[in-house]
């Protein structure tokens, strides 16, 4: 109860005090429209401004085609999954192998370390498909081959009085 | 496992699982056989809402067990004698079915034996 009163007092104080509310809502970028990329850069000056905004050198700055998908001036980064980044570099955020201020790839949700790795795989795709088909095919072949050899309990049909037949025990009637 | 292989290789002398009896039930019983008696009536089974698969020759014991449980609930352990009686009846019913299966199998083998003998002789 004392804890509830404490929380209530804290909330009342937060609402009454305008300054502390201002601390909670201080960033101008608090809604997804604020993070929307700008319009597609047409001139060189616009390109330089956009590159500076995203913090990457102008010679590395490429954009997606202005085909209406809405990427605007967002930079087109190489498709390199997080798995391929150097694991020994001292990153600011080692768990996501990312430095502060690094631009996200448009498909960053796809290329994160727990999703998809587009680097050279240990085995070729052909080898992996063939391995899969070999194992599954062998299992299916064994299953189909043994289909007629299923075991069962040596027992006759259950006898119900509703069958309309006369059922007998193995005893003599007298 | 032997049953499955026998059914695949010798289907003429191996009855399939849950088979119906195709031979005359009195075959090989010169004194005849005792008929199985159904004690519970249809009305009793309907009144007890007995599931369809329990309406066999042990239905009267199933009804007795259900009735006992209803009377002493929640002390269901008090119905242990009734439960034992019912499950023993079901066990004996299963043994009877196994015997029927074995009889069927031996009669099929006998039929094959007679057929082969006839082919040899004539």
UniProtKB/TrEMBL annotation, chain A:
Keywords: Membrane, Transmembrane, Transmembrane helix
Source organism of the structure: Polypedilum vanderplanki (Sleeping chironomid midge)
PANTHER family given in the database record: NADH DEHYDROGENASE [UBIQUINONE] 1 BETA SUBCOMPLEX SUBUNIT 8, MITOCHONDRIAL, NADH-UBIQUINONE OXIDOREDUCTASE ASHI SUBUNIT
One Pfam entry name: NDUF_B8
InterPro entries, per the entry: NDUFB8
Membrane-spanning ranges: 127-146
Cellular component GO terms, alphabetical: mitochondrion
Protein name, UniProt field: Uncharacterized protein
Automatic annotation (TrEMBL), chain B:
Superkingdom of source: Eukaryota
Membrane protein topology class: Peripheral membrane protein
Coiled coil: 84-121
One Pfam family recorded for the sequence: NDUF_B7
Subcellular localization: Mitochondrion inner membrane; Mitochondrion intermembrane space
Keywords linked to the UniProt accession: Coiled coil, Disulfide bond, Electron transport, Membrane, Mitochondrion, Mitochondrion inner membrane, Respiratory chain, Transport
Gene Ontology cellular component list: mitochondrial inner membrane; mitochondrial intermembrane space
Predominant localisation class: mitochondrion
Role played: Accessory subunit of the mitochondrial membrane respiratory chain NADH dehydrogenase (Complex I), that is believed not to be involved in catalysis. Complex I functions in the transfer of electrons from NADH to the respiratory chain. The immediate electron acceptor for the enzyme is believed to be ubiquinone.
Family per record: Belongs to the complex I NDUFB7 subunit family.
This protein's name: NADH dehydrogenase [ubiquinone] 1 beta subcomplex subunit 7
């Amino acid at each position: 109860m004392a804890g509830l009163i404490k929380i209530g007092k804290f909330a009342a104080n937060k609402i009454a005090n305008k300054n502390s509310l201002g601390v909670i809502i201080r960033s101008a970028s608090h809604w997804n429209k604020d993070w929307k990329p700008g319009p597609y850069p047409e001139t060189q000056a616009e390109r330089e401004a956009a590159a500076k905004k995203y913090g990457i050198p102008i010679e590395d700055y490429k954009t997606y085609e202005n085909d209406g998908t809405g990427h605007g001036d967002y930079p087109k980064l190489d498709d390199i999954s997080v798995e391929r980044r150097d694991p020994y570099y001292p990153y600011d955020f080692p768990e996501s192998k990312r430095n502060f201020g690094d631009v996200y790839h448009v498909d960053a949700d796809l290329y994160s370390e727990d999703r998809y790795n587009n680097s050279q795989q240990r085995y070729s795709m052909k080898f992996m498909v063939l391995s899969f088909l070999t194992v599954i095919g062998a299992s299916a072949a064994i299953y189909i081959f043994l289909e007629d050899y299923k075991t069962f309990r040596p027992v006759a049909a259950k006898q119900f009085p509703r069958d309309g037949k006369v059922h007998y025990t193995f005893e003599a009637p007298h | 496992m032997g049953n499955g292989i026998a059914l695949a290789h010798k289907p003429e002398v191996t009855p399939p699982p849950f088979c119906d009896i195709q031979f005359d039930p009195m075959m090989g019983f010169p004194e005849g056989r005792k008929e199985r008696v159904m004690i519970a009536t249809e009305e009793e089974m309907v009144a007890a809402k007995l599931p369809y698969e329990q309406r066999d020759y042990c239905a009267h014991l199933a009804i007795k067990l259900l009735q006992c449980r209803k009377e002493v609930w929640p002390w269901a352990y008090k119905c242990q004698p009734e439960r034992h009686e019912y499950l023993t009846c079901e066990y004996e019913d299963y043994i009877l079915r196994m015997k029927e299966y074995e009889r069927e199998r031996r009669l099929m083998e006998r039929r094959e034996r007679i057929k082969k003998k006839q082919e040899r002789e004539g």
